[in-house]
Each structure stands twice: as structure tokens, then as C-alpha cells.
Amino acid sequence: MFMKRFGSLLLAAVLGSVITIVATQSFLKQPEQGVKIEHVNGLPVSQAAYTTNEKGEVVPLDFTGTAEKVTQTVVHIRSTRESVASNNQIPDAFRQFFFDSPYENQAPRQSTGSGVIINRDGYIVTNNHVVEGSEEVQVTLSDNRELKAEVVGTDPDTDLAVLKVNAKDLPYLSFVNSDNTKVGQWVLAVGNPFNLNSTVTAGIISAKGRNINIINSNNSNRNNGQQFNTSIESFIQTDAAINPGNSGGALVDLNGGLIGINTAIASPTGSYSGYGFAVPANIVSKVTEDLIAFGTVQRGWLGINVASVTNALAKENDLAVNEGAFVAGFGDAPDKSAAKASGIKEGDVVVKLDNTPVKSSTGLIEYIGRKRPGDKVSVVVNRNGKEVVIPVTLKNRDGNTSVVKREEKADIASLGFELEDVDSKVLKRLDVASGVKVKELNNSKLKRTGMREGFIITHVDDKAIKSAKELNEIIKNKKSGELITFAGVYEDYPREYIYALRM
User: Fold this and answer.
1) Counting Cβ atoms within 10 Å, is residue 403 exposed (0-12), middle (13-18) or buried (19+)?
2) Nearest CA to 266 among 276, 256, 257?
3) How many CA within 13 A on the CB side of residue 101?
4) Which among 283, 156, 306, 162 has a CA at the least distance from the CA of 231?
């Protein structure tokens, strides 16, 4: 009996000792902070999302193939603007007093951006603001070749420009139908932010048809002395990171199709803070084709003033719909309006163009912006609760369907400045033989060169100027992309200044 009890006690003691030893060893092996970190091989991020391949099979989402393809087609652009003045002779202590004078520092400036090769023969699309006013444009290809680029044409209304380099058999991107893109769709943004070449970022399309008034704030035109805005904004919004230097770069789908040209960011700091904006490929395609073929964009006009329908607007005008483009009028030249001539009335709401629904004024402007004078559009309007189909033949800004030639647009008025004669006594005092004075610059692109009102133009491209008519003829003979230089003096600063602008 005793031996049996002793054996039981011995077994219990042994088991207790084993349990104690195991527990102690386990405790001693734990990290001091009690955090267990595991390391696994491979790329776990690739398991975060899936897509289907060409066979319809579900596979991990992978950007590598698209990134490799697209980076070969995106170029780095460096544009140099003309040196127009220098204030190096002014002591630092006095420089603040010349901030708004012609002595403001206007040393040669360089800007950088991106561009996308869209043709194997060297055509490149970028943003107008990347090359605007440039004297020289240099393009660096993905293989590090550096080439000089010719500016084929620019379109400030969409902030687009087309360049041409002397090279053949280049890799390029094809346009896709940007109307078919969807909110939530994966996209890649490729460009050269902060001069960091071939940078690829990923995100989704956050919204479509955005108007952020970034082109409106800087661009306007004058016609018959009246100023009006002609900008077209219907951006694709994306959360793929876009920063300064991405301008003109590619926004692509996962097949590497070009769905937009990255143009702007919404940011309180000037750097990426959530959203970027791209010009849709359907607009880019139309603009580039026109610039290559005609040197200027052939833009069809409905000839109406429109506003997006809102709940408040619908109540105020007793409208039967809560979305669409409200016809508020026919502008300052109703006799040239294609819409008015076709039977559209003030108070109508445009709800469809051809087979495309119109939900806002932005949608209407984008759709019409792809058309040319002479194109026919089926306009569906809601009038007093009923839909009316009205066929419209679009006109150009002058009220006809003729092709607009570059030389017809290029004149003093189109550049947005006004001239006046200079008193002979002033010319004699300044010791110049002839010249014309810049009376007003309005919203002229010449403002960005540093030119100020009161500038007396004495020479254009080294040719002496005697009258405004003579200057106008020189501008008319300029082709899109050509450089024009203005030399002259100011009455209060009697020394020569030179300003340059690319047409």
C-alpha cells in the first residue's frame, strides 16, 4: 500500500517538474516586449488585389509590364525662356523698390515637365504651360538621348501642345476611348516629378468631368474688342500621385492605353495632397490631330451660354429636370449662334448630344470641344417637360463653317495687346528712330514674358517698326511654334529690353 502511494507521489512530482521546466523555458524565449514578428518570402502586396488575364483567369494584380511599356514612351522636357532683362546692377538693398518695374529679375528661366510620344515618327504631346513662351525646347528620351524639339502647335484653351523631334521608330502610346473609363478603375501616372525621371504611381479614377477653373483663371480671348473665355475643362480626376514635373505626362490604363495627359493638381501647398487632373484622351486626340494638320485647333461652336442645372436653378426656372446644361443665352453675337439658328431657345436644358447624356455644362463643353465647324450634332433639349430633338450644324467662332487658318488668327488682337503711336518728341528724347507703344496688355501672354504696359516696341525680329499696321503684318506671317522677339525701351528706363514669345 505504501509503495503504491509512494509511486503515485513520485509520478506527480516528476510531471510537475517537467511542466515547470517547460513553462520556464517558454517564458524565457519570449521577446522582452511580447511582440512576435514574422517574416515571409515573396511579395505579399501582390496578393492584395486580383485581375483577369487575356484568358479570363484570375491572377494577382501586377503593374510591372505596363510600367515598363509606358516609361519608354514618356519623355522629359526642358524649356528655356528668353532672358528679357536683368537687375544685377541694382544693389540688394534697393531691389524691393523695383519689384513691379522692368528691372524685375527676368534672367533666363528653365521649366521642366513631361511629354508622351504618340507617333513613331517623333510627335509628342505635352501641356501648353510646359513650353509656353519658350525659346528652346529640349527633350530627353527614355534611352537618355537628348534632342531639340520643334513646337508644332499649342492650344491654350485645353492647355495642350504638340512637339516634334527628329527621330524615327520611337516607342509610342495609343489613345483609348476615355469615355469608356470608369470611376474606380485602376490607372498609372507616369512622368518626371521634381526631375525624377520615369516615375510611376498607381491609383484609381476618382471622378470624371471635373472643372477646376485652372485654365479659366489664366486664359481668355478677345474678339471684336470683347473679352470672353474659351477654355475647355473636363478633367479625369485621379488619386495617383502627381507633382510638379508630371505636367504633360501619361495617365494610362492597365493595358498601357493612353487615357489622359496629366495637367494639374489640387493642392494648398503646390505638391501632391490627394488629387491630380488629366485632360481626357478624346480631347487630346482631337486637339493633336488639328494642330498637326492645320497648326491651330478647328473648334466647333454651339454659340450658347450654359450653366449646370442645380436644384436651386431648377426651382428658380421651373425646370422639369435636375441635371443637364441650361441655355442661359446666346452670347454677344446671337446672329452667329448655330444653336439659335437651329431653333434652340433660351431656357432649354440640353440633356443629350447625339447618344451621349449631358449632366452638366462641363459635359456639354467637353463633347462640343471635340467637334469641328461643319460637324452635325443631334441636340436633345428638355423644353417645358418635353424632349425635343434638334439637329445642329456647328459653326466656327466667326459664324461660318470655314477652316480657320493659323495666319488668320495670328494678329495683335489675338495676342491680347493694344498699341498706340508714340509722340515724336518722346522718340527723340529716347534717341530712337521709330516705335509703337504698348497701351494695354489685357490678359496677353506677353505679360508672362515680363513685358509691361508703356513698353515702346522699336524692333520685331531685328526689323525696325514704324507703325502698328507694320507690326500686325509681321505677326500674321508667323507660323505656329515660331519665336517672335520684341525689342524696345521704356520712357523711365532708357535702355533696351528684349522679350520673346513663341506663337
Assistant:
1) middle
2) 276
3) 15
4) 156
CATH of the domain at 412: 2.30.42.10
Identify the domain containing residue 384 by its residue range. 305-393
Decide: helix, strand or coil at residue 354.
Answer: coil
14: in domain: no
Four-residue CA torsion sign, 207, 209, 213, 219: positive
Stronger pLDDT, 244 or 9, i.e. the higher one: 244
Model pLDDT for residues 8-47, shown as the tens digit of each residue: 544 555 455 544 544 445 444 444 444 444 434 443 333 4
pTM: 0.68
Q: Are residues 466 and 496 in the same domain?
A: yes
Nearest to 232 by CA among 75, 381, 371: 371
Which positions are catalytic? 129, 159, 247
Is residue 259 within 8 A of residue 184, CB to CB? The reply is no
Whole-angstrom Cα Rg for the chain = 32
DSSP letter string over 68-94? HHHHTTEEEEEEEEPP-B--TTS-GGG
Which DSSP helix (H) or strand (E) runs through 333? Answer: none
In degrees, rounded to 5, the angle at the alpha carbon of residue 36 between the alpha carbons of residues 32 and 39 is 130
Give domain status of residue 117, yes or no: yes
Q: Which residues pair with 148 in a beta bridge?
A: 138
The total number of structural domains that make up the chain: 4
